Every structure is written in C-alpha cells, then in structure tokens.
Amino acid sequence: MAAPGDRLEPPPLPEYSCSYVVSRPVYNELAFQQQYEQRPKERKTLRENLTLLPILDWLPKYQIKEWLLSDIISGVSTGLVGTLQGMAYALLAAVPVGYGLYSAFFPILTYFIFGTSRHISVGPFPVVSLMVGSVVLSMAPDEHFLVSSSNRTALNTTLIDFAARDAARVLIASTLTLLVGIIQLIFGGLQIGFIVRYLADPLVGGFTTAAAFQVLVSQLKIVLNVSTKNYNGILSIIYTLIEIFQNIGNTNLADFIAGLLTIIICMAVKELNDRFKHKIPVPIPIEVIVTIAATAISYGVDLEKNYNAGIVKSIPSGFLPPAMPSVSLFSEMLTASFSISVVAYAIAVSVGKVYAIKHDYTIDGNQEFIAFGISNIFSGLFSCFVATTALSRTAVQESTGGKTQVAGIISAGVVMIAIVALGKLLEPLQKSVLAAVVIANLKGMFMQVCDVPHLWRQNKTDAVIWVFTCMASIILGLDLGLLAGLVFGFLTVVLRVQFPSWNSLGSIPSTDIYKSTKNYKNIEELEGILRFSSPIFYGNVDGLKKCIKSTVSILSLEIWFLTTFETSFILQNGIISGAGSSNNAFEPDEDIENPEEPDIPTKEIEIQVDWNSELPVKVNVPKVPIHSLVLDCGAVSFLDVVGVRSLRVIVKEFQRIDVNVYFASLQDHVIEKLEKCGFFNDNNIRKDIFFMTVHDAVLHLQNQVKSQEVQDSILETIALIQDCKDPLELMEAEMIEEELDVQDEV
User: Fold this and answer.
1) Pairwise CA distance, residues 388 & 107, whole Å
2) How many CB atoms are located within 10 Å of the residue 23 CB?
3) Do 632 and 694 contact (CB within 8 A), yes or no?
4) Is 445 strand, coil or helix?
5) CA distances from 147 to 161, 164, 195 (A)
6) Which residues neighbour 102 within 8 Å (Cβ) at sequence distance 6 or greater?
C-alpha cells in the first residue's frame, strides 16, 4: 500500500491488439468515379422544406392520460410566472404595465399552431424588451409631450402629457413588433434560419451579459424612484448612472425598501428552488407570492398617499380591439428591427435546442422563424411588444412536467384570467416591486461572467470575442454593440483563415497514416507531401505560396520565381534589371551554385510573385530536389476563382520544371468547383492527378519510381550496347567481370 505522501502513478493506457489489413486498388478520382457512379442530387422545393402546420404532427399523437395532468400543472405554474414577468418586462419596453399582460398572452396562441418546440414558453424576454424600449424612448421621449399649464400657485409650468405619451409609445412598440414579425417571416420563407449560426456562443454570452447590465441600470432608477432623462445611444448607460447618483438624495425610501426586500426574498427562494428541485415537485412561485403581499401592503398602508410611492395606478381591464399599427413609422425603425428579429430568434432557438436535445426530438430552425414571425405579426395587431422566450419561464414549464405546448395554452389561459379579472386588483402594486422582480431574474445572465476564465483556458480567441462584445454593448448600446461583436467575430475568422496552418507530412511506417513531421517523432519523412489546413481563396493564396516555397529548396525556388514570372526582377552582375530583359544570367550549362565571378556581392531580395499573371513560354530553370509534390487538401472546404486559378498556375509551373503535382482527399463539391472554373480545360491537367487519399498518391508515385528505375536500367543497357563497337566484346567483358567477382567471393 502506498504511503500518504507518495505520488500515484497514472493508470496504464489500454493496448489495442487488434489490427486490420485492407486490400484495394489505388484510386484516383477518375478511376473511382468510373467504378462508383455518383448519385444525382435531390433538391427539395420550398414547399417541401416548410412544415406549415407542425401541430398536425404532434397533436394527433397526444397522450391524454399520461400528459394532460402534467401539462395542466405546468401551465398554471408558468402562467402565474408569465403574468408577473409580462407586467415587469413592460417597464423595460417603456409601455404601461398592462400591455405586458397582452404580450404574455397573444403570442402563445399562434406559436401553439406553428411552432416546433414542445417546451419553450413564448412571451417577453428582458433583453428583447430592453431593445424595444430603446427604440420606443428614442422615438417618443418625454420632451415630445411637454405641455404648458398655468394655475394660481405656479404660472406657465411645464408638464408631461402622460396619456398622449403612453399612447404614442404603445403605437411605436406595436408597429415595431409588426415589422419584426414581417422580417422573421421573410427570413423563414427564404430558408435562412442558418443566420443564427453567426451568433456564436461567446458572442451571445457577452451580449446578454451586457444586456443584463443595461437592464439593471434601467430598473435601478425605478427601484429608487429617481427621475432621470431617457438617454439612448453611445455611452447612454454611463450618463444614466451619473444622473442616478447625482439625484440619489431624492430616493423614495418606501420604494427602495420594497424593492430591496423583493430582490433578497426572490433570489433566496430561487436558490432554494434550484438546490432542492429534486425534492420539490413544483417550484415555489415566489414572484407571485411577493407581488400579492406587496399589493396588499401598498393598498392597506396607502403608500402612494402617505409616502409618495410610485404605483402601477391603471391597468386596462379586458382586451383591446385589434388596431393596425402605423406603417409610416417603418422607415425610422428598420435598422433596429433587423437586430431585434435576429436576437429574438436566436434566443428562442438556443433555448429550444437545449430542451429538444434533452427530450430527444428536433426543432426546425426555418419553421421557428415562420412561427415567431406569425406570432409577432398577430401580436402587433393587439398592441403587444416583441415576443421570444424567457429562460426562467421555460425552465418552470419544463421542470413542472410540461410535455407539449398544451401547457403553453393553459398558461395563456391563466394570463387571460389575470387580464379580465385581476387588473384592477393589481393597481396599488408598486413599480419598484416589478422592477425588483426583473432584477432578481438577471442572476443567470450575470453568472455568465464566471465562464470567461474557463473560456480563456479553452480558446483565447473566443474569450476575447466574449469580452469585446460585452464591453461594446455596454458602451455603444445593444444595437451597435451587437453589430460590433459580429464584425469582430467575423474578423477573427478571416484572420484565422487568412493565416492558416500548414505542415509537411511523413508516414507512420507500415501504415496508411500521415502526420506532421514537426509534431511527431519516429515517423518516416517523405519530402514533398504538404497539408494546407484552410480554404483556398484570394485572401490566403500567398499563404499557399509560402507553404510550397518552404518545401522546395529556397535557392532553387527563388531562381524559379525569378526566371518565370513577368513581374519578378533578374539580378545580373549586381544590377536589378526589369522584366523583359534577356536572361543571360542562367544558361543551361551554367552552374548556378558556383558563379564564375565570386567577388560580386550578392544579397537577399524579397520575391513578390503575381500568381495570376500570364506565364512566359520558354524559360530555363534549374532542377529541384523533388520529382513530385502531393497536396493533402482534405481540409479545403471551398475554393474561389482566384484560388482555382492559382492552383492551375502552380500545377503548370511545376510541370515546367519536371515536377508533377498531385492532389489528395479533395471533397466532391471542391472538385465540382474546379470543373466549373475551368481547371481541367488545359490538356496537361487531368483528373488522374487527384487521389482519394494521400496513401493512394504515395503508392502511385512509388510504382512510378520503380517503373522508371526498370526503364532507366533497360535504357542504360541499350546505350552501352550502342556505344560498344562489338557487342560480343561487351558480353565477354561482362563474363570476365562475373568470374572475377566469384573468385573474390571464394
């Protein structure tokens, strides 16, 4: 038994004794396609790609006995949470809180029919609501609704027409919702659901964390009941914080205490729900409990009258009739609507995929675009703001046993009851309590900061994207910050593709495995085998040139470049002369490595090559130390016209110096691109230089070398016979040599 301080040895790695032997012909692309015919590509029509009514797929299979009770419990729990969150998130959207109830009800009705996720809870989300609010505040600030009033105590005082302001803001929010829905519907119809892939996880993490910080600041002034100007754009959050701290002496203590207690209680109970979620069948609806208690206290103590607390005051009872938003406002909100539509979709699909994987089903990204597009168009007609899904609300729906969107419909029923019956009862509720509910639900987004150190250890580039997007979104605002994060993310991809990795390959003896000679020991180095790990396009053609240049001896290749390309220069007698001068410096019988005038100083010059230039027809070039070049193109995912043209130039130039170029492991669509771009139009470039694997190409070259050696031996014998005047004398001389060899051995 080992002593306590002894270091334990790591367990030995398992040894794999199995092996395999494969016997097959050496395949190039031409031979493979002749033997195995390609299948014709089947392209689905737009109608086949769209599942217009997903409800028809799952509703007939609904298991009433097994699922209905769970969906009822889940729907009631989710509906209670959704009611409170809808009212709270209306503050972020800068509309009266009653319209948050509408936004928690109407989107569910259409998503139930057109959506493909069974578990997400559709409705407002703080990040999206804040983005809507920034548009609303920029288009309808308080300054636009100032009216002058005169009375006996104060002459010509300026007041805000709250009724007109709220009506204008509701109209702007509903118009924005309609436009977002139209954009999402167009995106779904065009089958561009893949757009969400460009919102990488680090980018989304940084953006949502910054949005959480923006939400915190926007709700802080409500918790303190401190009035500030409505700032938007660059550094708006900084200006808001400065003004909050300048006016912090005017804090309303009743609102501050109510808000602080709400935050503490909600966060504490949510933590208990998380820790004991396996023991508690239904999470404690702490937001509902706190709201009911706060409403009762506010009504009993009359906080508005006695302590000047800010309360909800007016919640419309019942539903408003549908109304057409103002289409004339589209031009003023078009840019913001694009970012909101993509962010809302990305959040919904990301959450939906998490639960789809957990419960073993799939969601259709394009259909989700259509579902949310229809939901937002429908909601915009009923004075709602943009809907997506909320993480906390979806977690409640799934954790309480929700099986399908039937739970969503039941939750909508709970919200409907609140709209019809409970509106007036909630009017004494303090706004600070709703703001505190919003802040308490931001914990999960703030905790994403803890992912940054772990992300830095895994991938420093992703960590930088996270931090950059977060800081840009805080400083520039959510719209510009998201755009800056996208541009920065694209820039990192471009830089990684523009400066790709490449390496020379060697073979593991007696196998068909080829690995980098820099990274592994005890492998057989084979000169002239390269792997280029990137697409080949106009931005990295120089990297491909550098890769090839490092393989051939530098001196030989520099001379090749100097004597080949029109744009290069010839170094002759210490003078650099332009293209078009006679190439007297390199005659066929001249020894390049031993010039006749050693006293002339030489210096290194940088070689700049135009890979797309026309090639001179007759040049004299030196021999290079390789007879073939194999390019492993398995990592080449695409080519552009410049890349194809450059490959053709490389092949033709190497052929001119008696070096054959072979390609291995190209994907089918890359070969198709070569064909479309005329790569094979030249008679000297055929498909038989493309091989299925690197090993196929190496075996082909080995067979060629053996055949060439046999052929050279035969030609050498024939030449000796032709040079000898008497063949019989040659045969006698060979016999004498053989006898002498035998005597020496004896």
Assistant:
1) 9
2) 4
3) yes
4) helix
5) 6, 11, 46
6) 86, 319, 320, 379, 382, 383, 384, 419
678 within 8 A of 645, measured Cβ to Cβ? no
Termini Cα distance of the chain:
66
Helix, strand and coil content of the chain, in percent to the nearest 5, comes to 60, 5, 35
| E strand or H helix at 183 | helix 162-189
pLDDT average, residue stretch 626-633: 85
Residue 710 CB coordination number (10 Å) = 10
**pLDDT of residue 74 exceeding 80:** yes
Beta 157-160 vs 146-149: how paired, if at all?
antiparallel
- The sign of the torsion formed by the CA atoms of 453, 455, 458, 460 equals negative
CA separation for the pair 233, 236 (Å, rounded) = 6
Collapsing DSSP states into helix, strand and coil, what is residue 590? coil
> Would the pTM count as exceeding 0.70?
yes
Condensed to tens digits (0 to 9), the pLDDT of residues 235-262 reads 888 988 999 999 888 899 999 999 999 9
Q: In the structure, how many helices (H) and strands (E) does the chain have?
A: 28, 12
> Over the stretch 439-494, which tens digit does the pLDDT of each residue have?
988 888 888 899 899 999 989 999 999 999 999 999 988 888 888 998 999 898 88
| Of 47, 139, 124, the residue nearest 92 (C-alpha) | 124
Return d(Cα 191, Cα 181) in angstroms, integer. 15
Look at the chain and count its residues. Answer: 746
Eight-class DSSP state of 123: E
DSSP state letter for 450: G
DSSP string, 647-695: HHHHHHHHHHTT-EEEEES--HHHHHHHHHTTTT-STT--GGGEESSHH
Confirm if 173 and 138 have CB atoms less than 8 A apart.
no
- Distance (Å, whole) CA 277 – CA 284: 10
Structure tokens at 451: 């992912």
Q: Which amino acid is at 652?
A: K
Give the pLDDT score at 582.
39
H-helix or E-strand containing 178? helix 162-189
Q: Which two tokens stand for residue 395?
A: 């977690």
Tokens of 250: 């005017």
Of 479 and 106, more confident: 106
Give bridge partners of residue 255 from the DSSP assignment.
none
Looking at residue 276, its amino acid is: F
